Amino acid sequence: MTDRTPRLDRASELRRDTDRLMAALDVPETLLVPVHRDQSLVVLGSEPRAVLLDARGASGLVDVASEIVWLGRIGARDCFAIDISQVERPESHTALVGRGEFADLRMAGGLLPAEEAEVLAYARGMLYWHRRHRYCGSCGRRTKPREGGHMRECVDENLKHFPRTDPAVMVLVSHGERCALARQHGWPEGMFSVVAGFVEPGESTEDAAVREVKEELGLRIDALRYFRSQPWPFPSSLMIGFFAETNDESLVIDATELEEARWVTRADLREPRGFFYPPPYSLAHHMIRAFVG
Question: Looking at domain 166-292, which CATH architecture does it have?
């Protein structure tokens, strides 16, 4: 893929055309996105890029794939995610020798062009879901993939299971020139970020933001403003960012969730000393930079 490559068209109206999708796997120009145990194929170095393979030279990977999911179309070319986790040494496979390396997308994704990271994240998330939903949660019987891999069906109970995305809120709380940052137990030493938590059943994202700030920092929010969202397929979340303002100053942290929290100024964030915040692939990074700016 290059900067001129069109973005992926998910073309959901084509997912039920099973004959067409099966035929597309035999088209030499079809693109394959291999995933190995949640890692994605990339080329790192001075110009990091995602590796999407032509079916022409990688048809052998289809034969060893434990799961295949149709992602959509990139330009005029069909694009499939293939799970090759059963291959012990994937870089030694004839279709992959010299093509790149399998890397954790949490680290490599921020280095890639956005349209490439999107495809890899989509492939990773879909295949992660398939590996964990091979059996019906109601009766325990094996499910079967349908609609190009975008649904799994329990034939015995006529139940349809769909990929799940869990909404989570991220909240940057400010008080004048300062904002509150916190760190969780087990994070890399010195890393601080905004507070975050999952939306609970029956709760709006706004209510979740207010609740998380109160639970984790002990602060009452006086104003709340939406920032933007970010897909986070690690494993299956959608991060929804908010800016919040408060007149409270006393931080009362939830010690079961957080190790520490502190107020930091814009000047502290421009030149962090003794701490750091998440890198650019994270929504939290862009929220902090927007506050600084």
Answer: Alpha-Beta Complex (3.90)
